[in-house]
Write a structure and sequence with these properties.
Helix content is 32%, strand content 16%. The protein is α/β, with parallel strands linked by helices. The chain has 2 domains: 279 residues, FAD/NAD(P)-binding domain; 144 residues, Elongation Factor Tu (Ef-tu), domain 3 (Beta Barrel), CATH 2.40.30.260. A 6-stranded antiparallel sheet has the order 10-11-12-13-9-14. Strands 6-2-1-7-16 form a 5-stranded parallel sheet, with helices on one face. Strand 12 and strand 13 form a beta hairpin. The relative contact order is 0.17. Bound molecules: flavin-adenine dinucleotide. The site of flavin-adenine dinucleotide has 37 residues, from helix 1, strand 2, strand 15 and helix 11.
Length: 438
């Protein structure tokens, strides 16, 4: 009889883990509660739905997400392959039609031998002999989060993130915008709203004074630094937005021939160009306030909102206390934690975590030796971070070059330093793939 792995959660991590386990010859039971029970952020019943931005980051290997994606390609990520088939234009980054990607990967999994999709909310940690991968994500259903407390030493944590609004294309007056990519990389893939100093300052004033949604009393008001809401950035100083999401560098307005004081960028969200995201506009401003304030921007006077920006929970375990370098629960070796819940942050990181959990769990089930991923690789560094960070102040992390050990060569130039680390990561990963016979 074939060995089986059970996966809870068919999001970015769970779907990738399922593909990897099935590819390794295992049977897979993949539990997903949507569309029967929806989360506060997902829009569809498809697996592997990206819930907010449609960007998977830069493709350049000297950028953190570029290096991580290169490793995922070498490891045979199904999600990335599907992402490439769902690509929308976005300069030098990989951006996708989110729902097309999700639908494509769902169909692939539906047709994959050995994979059984089981719809419904899991409310208890299932018993069984085979490996269990828990990948229920930052929006893990409350009942299941409670059930997990036995495994997580009652220390599952949360903080708050905020998502950006999505606008309907037909409601945008594009004649007031200009199309361009920063530093002319790629085609003119973004629509840009140029702001002069006066308009920018009026906008900042509105954002700062805007009414925000309540934070529940029992919830701590903690934001994750990499995903600060627009209003939090604006409150930190009048110029903060102009140096952050509204930065004008690398953009020239063809009508004036000059760089604007600040720029609001709109990125295409789907292949049909029906929707555009306001880039970096994650917010917890009340819906009415978003409408009022964002409609003061040129070209958005009649903007219709397909989705408002909002606040959301972000559940994760205190990874250094709970898991080892294989993302395996120290208290119960049958259990693996994957994705955002396991202490990584971001789409690509969640896919990476799911991919290796799928491989590790499969090797476990097949009685094969598991080989630790070198810390010099991006994926290995992420796993090492989650397992070894300081538990007293633990926060999920994106992959950064800072997580990689120094290259051991004296180099001053930052880009060159990254190139060397990327080169070494590539060699170490290839060696690991050869030894693990992936
Ligand atoms: C609102 C929001 C916006 C985000 N925006 C971004 C962004 O723009 N860019 C970025 O890089 N990262 C973003 N993230 C962070 C993170 O990258 C994503 O959440 C990513 O989808 C995490 O992957 P995952 O597989 O861990 O979780 P998910 O993709 O959320 O998958 C978890 C799955 O488990 C299912 N599930 C939950 N509980 C149960 C249960 N009890 N039984 C069965 N199924 C269950 C859910 O329905 C879901 O399909 C965002 C997160 C949130 C919550």
């Amino acid at each position: 009889m074939k060995k089986k792995v059970t996966i809870i959660g068919g999001g970015l991590a769970g779907a990738e883990a399922a593909c990897q386990a099935a590819r390794s010859g295992l049977e897979v039971d993949l539990h997903e509660m949507r569309p029967l029970v929806m989360t506060e952020a997902h829009q569809s019943g498809w697996l592997a739905e990206m819930v907010c931005s449609n960007s998977l980051g830069s493709e350049e290997v000297t950028s953190a997400s570029g290096l991580l994606k290169r490793e995922l390609r070498r490891l045979g990520s199904f999600f990335l392959r599907q992402a490439e088939q769902s690509r929308v234009p976005a300069g030098s980054s990989l951006s996708v039609d989110r729902l097309r990607l999700a639908a494509g990967l769902t169909r692939k999994l539906q047709g994959m031998p050995g994979v059984r999709l089981i719809q419904g909310e899991v409310r208890e940690v299932p018993d069984g002999d085979g490996p269990l991968i828990i990948a229920s994500g930052p929006l893990t259903s409350p009942a299941f989060a409670r059930a997990l407390s036995g495994l997580t030493l009652r220390k599952h944590l949360y903080f708050f993130d905020a998502t950006c609004p999505l606008l309907r294309a037909e409601s945008i007056d594009f004649t007031q915008l200009f199309a361009a990519s920063r530093y002319e990389k790629g085609e003119a893939d973004f629509w840009n709203i140029p702001l002069d100093k006066e308009r920018y300052e009026a906008f900042v004033g509105d954002v700062v004074r805007g009414e925000t949604a309540e934070v529940h009393e029992f919830e701590k008001k903690v934001f994750f630094d990499a995903c600060l809401p627009l209003e939090e950035i604006a409150r930190s100083g009048t110029q903060s937005l102009a140096f952050g999401p509204l930065k004008p560098v690398g953009l020239v307005d063809p009508r004036s021939g000059r760089r604007p004081f600040a720029v609001v960028q709109l990125r295409q969200d789907d292949l049909q160009k029906n929707f555009y995201q306001l880039v970096g506009f994650q917010t917890r401003l009340k819906h009415g306030e978003q409408k009022r304030i964002f409609r003061t921007l040129p070209g958005l006077e009649r903007a219709e909102f397909e989705r408002f920006g909002r606040m959301h929970r972000n559940t994760y375990i205190n990874a250094p206390l709970i898991i080892n370098r294989f993302s395996q629960c120290k208290q119960d070796g049958r259990v693996y934690f994957a994705g955002q819940l396991s202490g990584v942050e971001g789409y690509v990181e969640s896919v990476a975590s799911g991919l290796v959990c799928g491989l590790f769990a499969a090797r476990d089930a097949l009685g094969l030796e598991r080989l630790e991923l070198p810390r010099e690789t991006a994926v290995g560094a992420l796993l090492a971070y989650a397992a070894n960070a300081d538990w007293r102040d633990f926060r999920p992390s994106k992959f950064t070059f800072g997580l990689l050990p120094e290259a051991g060569v004296e180099v001053r130039d930052k880009k060159r330093k990254k190139e060397l680390k990327a080169e070494r990561a590539g060699q170490e990963l290839d060696q690991w793939i050869r030894e693990a016979k992936i």
